[in-house]
């Protein structure tokens, strides 16, 4: 009895040790067979064939860049038979960005190409430049094909360009023609654009005219915070001065944007919705509001949420002043194993032709000004929005966009301005002054290290 | 090892006494070795068996705890996590004058109370009802546990729709009985009430099952003699059930309190896409959310670590209070 328990116990120990050892060994072997000399492993044989002698490039992205869906990886792999592209993507940037920073800090866990959102690009350019390749000098990259302001956003003071621009978000105003007609306003997109051309304050005045005769339950805009973001998205100087000093509190431009946006809440022109919440979606479906500032990537969203009933009722006009919302960059970490191949891929993906493809298939607007000359971009129309010439509208907005002074904490400042301060004014009826003070208090706390 | 048979003494012609001696010695040494190995086996094998747990605990439990403590004494940003500047207890002392921290602590407390108290009372009532013989009791027992099996995210997203200001079902129902729609998300109490309902919905059944299990171990004769003495069911519940459940109730109170202190997913998702600020006025920002906002939105690892450690100390305090109370209870009974 005794010997039996002993030997069976020993057997268990042996099995446990064996299992651990096997686990460790298989872990090792998996690691070592991953890169260049590529024995076919389950994980790296994406296409099912043998990947002998192929280089696997990994893309770490957030949200929907759409490269895979637009077929660009397949096209590149067909052009470069020695390359296999794999992509991992995290839905939300706030879950993607902090791990990216820790990975850059430790130099591990990085993909060969990493996407960076526009609201983080200044922080990355200023704090992580030594960990990222200078793509300005990479083969196949043509500086002049990019919009100058987009190129400048990823270039640091020393002239090192760490990111190549993908899409941008030049804005228009999406508006409901049927509701405009009921309120006695013009419906033609040219005429509508002229109503408020040149000044966001005029947009407010048109809103008051609209609201006076609007059908009951319909507001002029979705949210005062949305207006604030749209105005700030086109302001040349905002939260930082040229020397990197935080000036949002005293900058008259920011305060003027705040006052205009708060005007929408005070004059009750807002449907008091928060963007990208379920009730905002319901607002589209139930025709709660008549206008919304919309970058190209939002058109598909509106189409989804407003549904078939909204077809032909929505249209796109120009914004009072050019404004940009969103966009991203591709970077190549220095710690990557296949840096040079990765840089080539990044250059190819951001080249004019590929940006045009992405626009046609996924409505990501090119940051490559060379792409605007292509008919697929410049002459694009959107059927759902009554065949609005969106190519023409957005190209004009993109070209007229002023060069903005960005700072590392733009995202936090803007978020607190709209989601704390302006949201209080809009939804709780807080006075404009108290809302501003609440935002300032939250920002000061957030920026204090 | 199958060489258990004793080594046969060599049976060659007339074994010399010397070789005999040798064999015995060898045998003894072998036995000695084996028993030493056996002793070692008995002594160390259990450690080998529990080692995996401790390795994981060290890597994912103790190390992060200590490292968080170390980080809380530094100024360190997520943009440069290796770049640490010693600041002593400054991260902790600044919490004392940090309005957002106190607001979060207050919210955690109020949401904790308005979710834990009704939740446990309801759980007790449900368990009491399930404890009677009733048809399909198994069905009801499973049914009360189903909310617990739902993911926080899924449940919260549905509740966000129910509590919607313009098209929410709750406001629609209120409207039917002539009450004006309530802006659930923006009011301090309304938003905290809404968050609490998600917690209550999810955890009531879980606690009810714990109570039920404890109730079933109460001997029947207690009830029988109580019934003989003319006690009503309500009196039986008050004077038999509740006193017998005392340790169980204490256990659920502690577990729920810990859960309430760490409340995170529900208030985060109740805020739509707006992130970790817990509403425009931070009206339902809990300690967990504030920690997340400092660390992963504002990227201040040092400050976030200090909040994490403060939460840890609060939990230790709760544990100590619980220990004192349970000791008092044991003495009195």
From TrEMBL, chain A:
Gene3D superfamilies: Periplasmic binding protein-like II (3.40.190.10). Residues 1-21 form the signal peptide. The keyword Protein transport does not apply. Keywords: Signal. Residues 27-53 are annotated as: Disordered. The keyword Signal applies. InterPro entries: Bact_solute-bd_prot1 (IPR050490), SBP (IPR006059). Pfam families: SBP_bac_8 (PF13416). PANTHER family: ARABINOSE-BINDING PROTEIN-RELATED, SUGAR BINDING SECRETED PROTEIN. This is Carbohydrate ABC transporter substrate-binding protein. It comes from Streptomyces paludis.
TrEMBL record, chain B:
It is found in: Cell membrane. Signal peptide: none annotated. Its main location: membrane. GO terms for biological process: transmembrane transport. It is a multi-pass membrane protein. GO terms for cellular component: plasma membrane. InterPro entries: ABC_transporter_permease, MetI-like, MetI-like_sf. The chain crosses the membrane at residues 44-67, 109-130, 142-164, 306-325. Residues 1-23 are annotated as: Disordered. Keywords: Cell membrane, Membrane, Transmembrane, Transmembrane helix, Transport. Residues 105-322 form the ABC transmembrane type-1 domain. It comes from the Bacteria. Pfam families: BPD_transp_1. PROSITE patterns: ABC_TM1. Belongs to the binding-protein-dependent transport system permease family. This is Sugar ABC transporter permease.
């Amino acid at each position: 009895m005794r010997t039996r328990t002993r030997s069976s116990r020993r057997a268990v120990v042996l099995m446990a040790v064996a299992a651990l050892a096997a686990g460790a060994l298989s872990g090792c072997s998996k690691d070592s067979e991953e890169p260049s000399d590529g024995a076919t492993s389950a994980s790296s044989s994406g296409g099912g064939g043998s990947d002998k002698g192929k280089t696997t490039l990994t893309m770490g992205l957030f949200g929907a860049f759409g490269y895979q869906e637009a077929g660009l990886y397949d096209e590149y792999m067909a052009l470069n038979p020695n390359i296999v592209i794999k992509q991992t993507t995290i839905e939300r940037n706030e879950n993607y960005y902090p791990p990216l920073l820790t990975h850059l800090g430790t130099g591990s866990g990085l993909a060969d190409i990493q996407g960076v959102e526009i609201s983080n690009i200044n922080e990355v350019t200023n704090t992580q430049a030594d960990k990222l390749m200078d793509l300005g000098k990479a083969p196949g990259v043509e500086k002049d094909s990019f919009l100058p302001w987009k190129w400048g956003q990823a270039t640091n003071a020393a002239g090192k360009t760490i990111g190549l621009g993908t899409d941008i978000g030049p804005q228009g105003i999406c508006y409901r023609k049927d509701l405009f007609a009921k309120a006695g306003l013009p419906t033609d997109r040219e005429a509508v654009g002229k109503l408020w051309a040149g000044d966001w304050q005029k947009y407010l005045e048109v809103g008051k005219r609209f609201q006076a005769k609007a059908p009951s339950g319909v507001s002029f805009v979705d949210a005062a915070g949305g207006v604030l973001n749209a105005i700030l998205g086109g302001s040349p100087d905002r939260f930082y001065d040229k020397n990197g000093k935080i000036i949002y509190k005293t900058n008259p431009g920011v305060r003027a944007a705040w006052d205009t946006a708060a005007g929408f809440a005070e004059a009750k022109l807002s449907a008091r919705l928060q963007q990208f919440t379920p009730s905002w979606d319901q607002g589209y479906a139930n025709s709660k509001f008549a206008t919304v500032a919309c970058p190209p990537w939002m058109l598909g969203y509106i189409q989804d949420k407003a549904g078939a009933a909204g077809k032909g009722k929505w249209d796109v006009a120009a914004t009072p002043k050019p404004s940009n919302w969103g966009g991203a960059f591709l970077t190549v970490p220095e710690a990557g194993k296949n840096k040079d191949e990765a840089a080539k891929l990044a250059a190819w993906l951001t080249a004019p032709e590929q940006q045009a493809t992405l626009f046609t298939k996924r409505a990501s607007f090119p940051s490559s000004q060379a792409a605007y000359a292509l008919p697929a971009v410049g002459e694009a129309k959107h059927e759902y929005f009554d065949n609005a010439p969106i190519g023409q509208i957005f190209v004009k907005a993109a070209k007229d966009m002023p060069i903005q002074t960005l700072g590392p904490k733009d995202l936090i400042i803007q978020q607190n301005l709209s989601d704390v301060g302006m949201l209080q004014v809009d939804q709780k009826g807080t006075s404009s002054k108290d809302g501003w003070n609440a935002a300032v208090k939250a920002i000061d706390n957030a920026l204090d290290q | 090892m199958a060489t258990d048979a004793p080594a046969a003494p060599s049976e060659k012609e007339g074994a010399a006494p010397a070789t005999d001696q040798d064999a015995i010695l060898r045998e003894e040494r072998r036995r000695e070795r084996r028993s030493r190995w056996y002793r070692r086996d008995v002594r160390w094998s259990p450690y080998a068996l529990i080692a995996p747990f401790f390795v994981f605990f060290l890597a994912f439990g103790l190390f992060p705890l200590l490292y968080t403590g170390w980080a809380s004494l530094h100024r360190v940003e997520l943009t440069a996590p290796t770049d640490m500047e010693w600041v002593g207890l400054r991260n902790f002392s600044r919490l004392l004058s940090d309005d957002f921290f106190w607001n979060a602590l207050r919210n955690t407390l109020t949401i904790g109370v308005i979710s834990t108290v009704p939740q446990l009372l309801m759980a007790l009532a449900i368990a009491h009802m399930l404890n009677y013989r009733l048809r399909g009791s198994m069905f009801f027992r499973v049914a009360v546990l189903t909310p617990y099996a739902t993911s926080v995210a899924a449940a919260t997203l549905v509740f966000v729709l129910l509590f919607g200001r313009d098209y929410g079902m709750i406001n629609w129902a209120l409207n039917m009985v002539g009450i004006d729609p309530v802006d659930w998300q923006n009011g301090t109490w309304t938003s905290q009430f809404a968050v609490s309902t998600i917690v209550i919905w999810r955890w009531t059944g879980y606690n009810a099952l714990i109570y039920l299990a404890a109730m079933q171990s109460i001997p029947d004769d207690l009830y029988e003699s109580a019934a003989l003495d003319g006690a009503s069911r309500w009196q039986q519940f008050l004077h038999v059930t509740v006193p017998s459940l005392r340790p169980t109730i204490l256990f659920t109170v502690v577990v729920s309190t810990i859960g309430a202190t760490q409340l995170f997913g529900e208030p985060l998702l109740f805020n739509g896409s707006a992130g970790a600020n817990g509403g425009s006025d931070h009206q339902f920002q809990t300690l967990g959310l504030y920690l997340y906002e400092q660390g992963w939105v504002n990227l201040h690892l040092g400050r976030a670590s200090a909040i994490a450690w403060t939460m840890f100390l609060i939990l230790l305090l709760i544990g100590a209070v619980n220990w004192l109370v349970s000791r008092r209870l044991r003495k009195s009974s």
